[in-house]
User: Fold this.
Amino acid sequence: MKNVLQKKQNKLGTNLFYSKNESWWLIGFSMLLASGIMIEPQLICASLLKGQLSDMWLYWSAAIGAAFSVSFFAHLWRKVPVKTENEFLFFRYSGRGAKILHNFRSLYLGLLVVPFIISFSLLAFSKIFCFIVGIEINLAIGLLTFLIILLTFFNSLRQRLKLDFVLFIVFIVLFLIIMISLFLNTGGLSHLATTVQSSKSNFNIIPSIGSKTFNAFIVFVLVQWWSASILDYPDMNGQKLMAANTSKDLLKSVFIPSLSIVLFRVFLFTLPFMAVCYGYASGSADSELAFTSLFVKVLPSWMLVLVVVVFLIPFLSMVQNTQNWGGSLLVENFYKHAINPNLSAAKAKKFGIIAMIYIIIISGGIAIYADSLVGITKYLFAITAGVGPVFMLRWYWWRINAWSQLSAMLAALIYPPVLDWFYDNNKTLHQLLISLEHNFNIDYYPIKLIILTIAVCITWLSVTFFTAPTEAKILQTFATTIKPGGFWKPFSNSGKTFSKLRLLAWLLQTGNGFLLYFIFWNFLIGSYVLFIVLLLLFVLGFFVSYKLIQKANANYDLESEK
Assistant:
């Protein structure tokens, strides 16, 4: 084992977990491929079979946060003078709190959150793989876990960026071949449009006002996107953005790949509708697996290999990118800082590979015992409810300290199971929440999200004002290096936010994110004139928001040079 590790790590370059001066297109397309783009059809199909397409706003509301991230945080990472995103904590915070937070976050994410994120993708692809190949899902999870363990020996950030770009091209070509074959074998677009229009199923994207789904939709678009989503790229994407050459390259890496894939997503969204409307998904015991039957029943058997590859490429990208980030947390951030600061580069690579293997084994175990993709998603949202504001404000408000972030993360981890326990075992609280569900015509999960958001925010705000601020020297260095603007009055030369430009760009991108689903709908029902008009509006909104952020970033760069 020792010789194998030594031989493989020599091929991985100087470091497994970070890189510098990478091309924008390598960064951008890697971020795109690793975003889980092939999981969405499974979730849409499950919602369609339930007769509630609008349930997808649990996921689609993330478009608001994604636009906010691009507008307000992407440009800041290039100036952070650290190797891994978690080391940002030492640059922003000080004292014992910074050390405790750094170690806690390294272990919390590396041992718990990262395996849960990977298990989501592992379960999603295993459902497809087991159905097409004809094996039990637990066996599929086991085989895929073993495959990823083997690929771990080749998993470095620099190699991953290059490989993702090549695989993205292969992925698009194979996807187009499969889509053309599907349309040829099912009567084409016109037949699909006629079938959708004549269907009695509920295909409403926006739920009926006053319904449970509508009230949940309101919570998702008004609360969840900022409360339960970490928007300032404190993940593998932050690691990649730090590898960009310039702020212009960084902006291109975030924007241009997302535009290039718009038509791909429109075609992608037709898959679950084809499966449901043509009856291929009916009778399936697992609604998240149902749309896979479309490929098995329509395509010739030899093409099923291509189908597996098309789903395998983004699956491996997402898993290995996340696995790499988890390895950096456990080795570069915890082991190297807390246990052995003098760790050699060779041993760091060896321990990095071991850490990544551990992560994927734990992920496989979670996937085996997970009930559904939706269940994993709701758990991840629950343990981050109320944390989002801390991650945003740490860039723009000097008073946020290490204890603020630590208390938010601990509260978000502890409060959900406590609330669930009281909901199940405390009669008074149970009746109170049931009455809220009845009076407001809403399910437990959105109420839970609101309660957790309020409780966690009260916790970290109280801790913030009851603890001392970060050392003035650290704050001044951060303000003058990053120059984020915002609320940094006690410190000089802290830069400007250029908030008007960024707010307008955010609103345009958010509108575009929602517009995409109406573009798809008009494509699906055969309203091609309106489809083209909306698509042109989308492209116009894209370029206007791109120019707005480009201008804001140019002003930011000029301000930073002062």
In short: Residues 1-13 have pLDDT under 50 and may be disordered.
